[in-house]
Design goal:
By secondary structure, this protein is mostly helical. It contains 17 helices and no strands.
Length: 409
């Protein structure tokens, strides 16, 4: 039990280091970009990034979860692991073609993307290159330090170059170029780690790659549904509201995403161990440790919303502080919704059930957004309220399922 807890703790710690870096690195450049770029241009950057969430989702296709499980189950068999990596990489190449077609259709259909087509296409390239980083492999091997060190090195490079290269609105086009350069560095680092681990990637049949897509479909549906909560909101904000609202929404969503990034290391860190041991005591300890921290964090956001918006965006974005305060119920519930998903229900093979809860929440969200549109009440605060209620629907659905299957732990 001690060894199990120690391994899970190490996984969580390494993922926390990476996710803190994922928060700190953008927050280093965010105030700079918010001040260097006009509100309109920053709105474009935020909007295109939200679109890339969809492209990334298609290409990931739930492999971060299904692939991790496969690697865990193949532990010790290097030949089998190499075949799994090759199979999933081939599947992602198929998905990259689909993602590019979808993105091309969106560029021709949405004005803000059409006016920034080259920028949008360049932003797609790092998403494509992510297929060669094999994050599911290192999660499954519980070598989280490799993922963390790779991210720290490459993101430090792109962050430093952002201050050197980006000086005016006209330099905005170089933002994706810096990410592309960092992605190539990351691929080289990962290739070195594969050689150290003596893992050789083997080509697999197209039939097996398609089978892998079918097996991962339930994970994809779950992640696709959850993406409705953020990316779809931003897409609709871009269609129905002004560039200023897009910028406000993008900045607040960046903060929410940063907080959410603090939750995922816990979920991802205990997931492999929960798959192996169904250790409900470990799960309960995580809840006891993190609940007080979450409450303290919510209080800091409530009393410091204006200061937070000033720090990350400058005086131009202080007016959006009311949105940050309104996001507190969402910030609180997100942790429990996330950890009650794959680490809890997914660990006992209730994959369809986890997906079902996310779909229910997504349907609730879509219906809520339609009501706002047709009643002419579509505004940032209303969208945030609908988003929050959707997350509560997901949590209550998952708690109900946990109670039903509690004997499996």
């Amino acid at each position: 039990m001690v060894k199990t807890d120690k391994k899970a703790a190490n996984n969580v710690i390494m993922l926390y280091i990476m996710n803190i870096a994922q928060i700190v690195m953008p927050l280093i450049t965010l105030p700079y970009l918010a001040r260097i770029l006009s509100v309109s241009n920053y709105g474009v950057v935020s909007y295109v990034k939200s679109i890339m969430v969809y492209a990334n989702l298609i290409m990931q296709f739930g492999f971060l979860l299904s692939g991790t499980r496969k690697i865990v189950e193949a532990r010790g068999n290097l030949a089998k692991i190499g075949k799994i990596v090759g199979c999933l990489t081939q599947a992602r190449m198929i998905l990259s073609i689909i993602a590019f077609i979808v993105l091309s259709i969106m560029i021709t259909s949405i004005k803000i993307l059409r006016e920034n087509a080259i920028f949008t296409l360049l932003m797609f390239i790092p998403i494509f290159l992510d297929a060669f980083l094999f994050e599911f492999l290192f999660r499954g091997l519980e070598k989280m330090h490799i993922i963390t060190m790779r991210y720290l090195v490459t993101k430090s490079i792109s962050t430093f170059l952002t201050f050197v290269v980006i000086r005016t609105n006209s330099d905005m086009i170089f933002l994706p170029v810096l990410d592309i350069f960092a992605s190539f560095v990351a691929i080289l680092l990962i290739h070195f780690e594969l050689k150290k681990l003596k893992i050789h990637i083997y080509k697999d049949s197209l039939r097996n790659s398609i089978r892998a897509l079918r097996e991962s479909f339930v994970y994809f549906i779950s992640e696709m549904s959850s993406t409705v909560f953020n990316a779809l909101n931003t897409v609709l904000v871009g269609i129905f509201l002004a560039h200023r609202d897009i910028a406000f929404w993008g900045l607040v969503l960046t903060f929410i995403g940063a907080v959410q990034s603090l939750y995922y290391p816990v979920s991802d860190g205990i997931y492999p161990e929960m798959v192996k041991s169904h250790n409900i005591k470990l799960f309960n300890r995580i809840l006891l440790i993190f609940t007080p921290l979450i409450i303290i964090g919510c209080l800091i956001v409530y009393f410091g919303a204006s200061i937070i918006m000033f720090i990350i965006g400058g005086t131009k974005y202080v007016d959006a502080a009311y949105l940050l305060r309104a996001s507190i119920p969402l910030l609180f519930i997100l942790f429990y919704s996330i950890i009650c998903g794959w680490p809890l229900l997914g660990a006992i093979n209730k994959n369809r059930e986890v997906t079902f809860t996310t779909i229910v929440g997504a349907i609730f969200q879509v219906l809520g957004l339609l009501v706002l549109i047709f009643t002419h009440n579509f505004n940032l605060l209303a969208v945030l309220i609908v988003r929050t209620l959707s997350e509560y629907v997901i949590l209550f659905s998952r708690l109900k399922l946990f109670w039903k299957y509690r004997s499996l732990f």
